[in-house]
Amino acid sequence: MSEMIIRGLHASISGREILKGGNLTVKQGEVHALMGPNGTGKSTLAYTLMGHPSYQVTNGEVMFKGRNILELKPDERSRLGIFLAFQYPVAISGVSVANFLRTAINSRRKAIESADKGVSVPEFRKMLKERMDLLKMDYSFASRYLNEGFSGGEKKRAEILQMAVLKPEIAILDETDSGLDIDALRIVSDGVNTLRGPEMGVLVITHYQRILNYIKPEHVHIMLDGRIVESGDAELAMNLEEHGYEWVREKYESVPA
Prior knowledge:
Helix content is 36%, strand content 26%. By secondary structure, the protein is α/β, with parallel strands linked by helices.
């Protein structure tokens, strides 16, 4: 089983250190939740793991399939089997959801299988319909321009559809619940639950417990000031829902990094 191992990760943006020695292991088949107040480094971790150029890694390593992915470009990390669902997905005018997904799956397939040719149009259409049926999505969704004019819920569903097509081994969901009403949250969560299983590890990044009412994690971690300071099971998330983050601040803000 593949696993992503984060060791002593330090990262900065514009000269300001955000991550201050994070350690975390996510294995295929596991669902982890990373929680914490705003501004503690959760999204920075997600972007650093995928190689966002604005974030500079100053120390540490992230091992996946025997390689330190910090040495790889973002597209290489994706082809290796890591996926990031963005908190704020970007619209791409003129590119349909279907064309975007076929280009992405061809790139991944060539990297994995060393194939000379990509997936054929009939094969791709069949696969896309199967994935959309699995997620209970209308086929017309595939012909729309990616995220252009999409509601918040539709953007997040498009991210989950990408995940369904690419079938990553490790999926990072960066505040997927952000901006969603309760109905959209339930739909997106149902999609994640449909896809979760022994072949995919999931890291759900959030500062609210509500998404964890639908996506049940086996492991919960709390991040504060760029470090993971507490880890536990689902009870830890319930404790945060009841008591907030004040007890975490009181316990750790005076502790040196």
